[in-house]
Amino acid sequence: MTGIAGTAESDGIEASLRLEGASPGEILRWAASRYAPRLAFATGFGPEGLVLLDLIARDRLSVDVFTLDTGLLFPETYALWRRLEERYALRIRAVRSALDLQEQADRHGEALWEREPGRCCQIRKVEPLAVALRGHEAWISAIRADQTPDRATARVVERDPRFGLVKVNPLLAWSSEDVWGYLREHDVPTNPLHERGYPSIGCGPCTSPVHPGEDPRAGRWRGRSKTECGLHARPSVPLSSPSPR
Questions:
Q1: Which of 10, 172, 223, 230 makes a 20 to 30 Å CA pair with 207?
Q2: Quick check: is 229 catalytic?
């Protein structure tokens, strides 16, 4: 696998800066031309991920698409997963923890997500993702800069020292309105839970409806300071110097 330093050198500052103003489709096509077939996309089937999945499928990009199946997803999420595979004739492979839920309970106690949600996310999401990304050079994420303080400092293309590869964030500059406008325009299937007060959907035990006026991610780990599962924890390192603004 190409090292991060080599990747940064070959991509160059000019390419990285040019992508700062590119459309998500352009960014994905660039990423596929540069990294495929060692390019991965981990989707949780949220609105942003569905935009990227639609763009990947439309351009038939060579991307390893998978989802982190924690075993705790909502039934509606599993149903959407199957529907998307049928619509796009695309396999979305399941990536799972080395421990099933019973093994996790035996080792760490019942309902770990209630007592130590950070550890649960580490076991069921972060560690499986690290395994899934082995052998890849880059991975695509669906984060937006306006979602959390951590994500606000991200760049379109950056080094991800946590996983030792390049991270590409095509939707960084988009708003929620941009995302939903795209989904409606292209009639992309979405999770019906969004219509029931769940703007951000994760595992069932750690996701609750959001009340009017609340932050869209207020229903994730409600009542805790935790706002991230750990997949997108900072710091990532830009591949180039910050562009002038």
A1: 172
A2: yes
